[in-house]
Design a protein that fits this description.
Layout: H1 44-51, H2 55-73, H3 75-98, H4 100-110, H5 114-132, H6 138-144
Helix pairs in contact: 2-3, 3-4, 5-6
Length: 159
Amino acid sequence: MTDVTLPEMPGMDSPPPTPPPDAAPKKRRGRPPGATDKAPRKTAASSRRANTPPLEKRLGTSLTTLGMLGCMVSPADGMVFVNGVPALASSLAKLAEENNSVRENLERMLTAGAWSGVVGAVAVIAGGIAANHGLLPAEFAAMLGASPAPAEGGVNAPS
């Protein structure tokens, strides 16, 4: 192996050059030290609240749906329930304003999640099967779109 001598680089022993005094300071990224942000932060909960209809309206919609399901079993009873929904929703909303525990429970009941869709889909399937076996009133079976089951294994399905 041969010894190689590298030429000496100029300025290696001297300090780095200093910028002239009239030069602007170098810009740094981020906030300057001591800066504060006075704007309120948006959280997921606050943005969700901004898009959510009032409690009374959501209660009315949910209770009306429940009453319409009741109409499938007993049209007269279901309509009595549906006609009473506005007063009931209003009363529950006023109670929720006064009692935080009631509000929390109503909000929990009204929160629609992925499971509510699953439960609804399974309920339609189970209702159709129950109607095919005569376990539900004929009016309810017709609303679900269930038709009389064909004969299975030589046994006629109940009508």
